[in-house]
Amino acid sequence: MGSAGLASLNYCVTALLFDGSNSDKQKEKSMDPDAVAKAFVDHYYSTFDANRAGLANLYQEGSMLTFEGQKIQGSQSIVAKLTSLPFQQCKHNISTVDCQPSGAGGVLVFVSGTLQLAGEQHALKFSQMFHLMPTPQGSFYVLNDIFRLNYA
Amino acid sequence: MDPDAVAKAFVEHYYSTFDANRAGLANLYQEGSMLTFEGQKIQGSQSIVAKLTSLPFQQCKHNITTVDCQPSGSGGMLVFVSGNLQLAGEQHALKFSQ
């Protein structure tokens, strides 16, 4: 996804959160965790598959990633890990997305699916959990990220 | 408190209670607790335990393969579990993540 695509998705997520109306009903509707989760998942995996370095603005200094048991902290280190994974091209196919409000204005997102690496015959199954927290600008960043491959 | 130690203790307690006596899970949930079980959303300890005790099997055994945890902000903790679930009488175990 190019920067224009990212900008328009950021607009969509922002539009979900701030529609200019002051009514509580409107605010409740626009903070719908399911909508936030779906928008985030679409954006995260399409960015991962097109340009992993583009994930940097989804993490902050206090963000944590546990990747197959390895613990990594901070946007820089997290993106360094993801961009150094030993494959060039990949495609995530998402099977399930579950979400719940996490308290403190956050959203928990639980994803399962498969990961197809270019040149590999069989897709890998994975599960991933994200804890999204709101930013002052009205979007979300990833505070917690846990990734596991699911083996037989 | 070491988050890894808390996570490990919780996981052992949760699944051994689940496998021995599902009703005993009630005190792990509160009124504001949420369970999403295979896509079905349930809220509150009473409803959650009603769902778990009504699952269509008598005996089961959870075998835990991986446990990951992270502090979640506001003093909370995220615990991410994967493993398999063996139902009595079934030939193949079911794989799960929680």
TrEMBL record, chain A:
Residues 36-149 form the NTF2 domain. InterPro entries: NTF2, NTF2-like_dom_sf, NTF2_dom, Nuclear_transport_factor_2_euk. This is Nuclear transport factor 2-like. It comes from the Eukaryota. Pfam families: NTF2.
Automatic annotation (TrEMBL), chain B:
One of its GO terms (biological process) is protein import into nucleus. Keywords: Cytoplasm, Nucleus, Protein transport, Transport. The keyword Kinase does not apply. The keyword Nucleus applies. It is found in: Cytoplasm; Nucleus; Nucleus envelope. CDD domains: NTF2 (cd00780). InterPro entries: NTF2, NTF2-like_dom_sf, NTF2_dom, Nuclear_transport_factor_2_euk. Residues 6-98 form the NTF2 domain. It holds the Pfam family NTF2. GO terms for cellular component: cytoplasm; nuclear envelope. SUPFAM superfamilies: NTF2-like. Has a role in nuclear-cytoplasmic transport of proteins and mRNAs. PANTHER family: NUCLEAR TRANSPORT FACTOR 2 (PTHR12612). Interacts with RAN1. This is NTF2 domain-containing protein. It comes from Gossypium raimondii (Peruvian cotton).
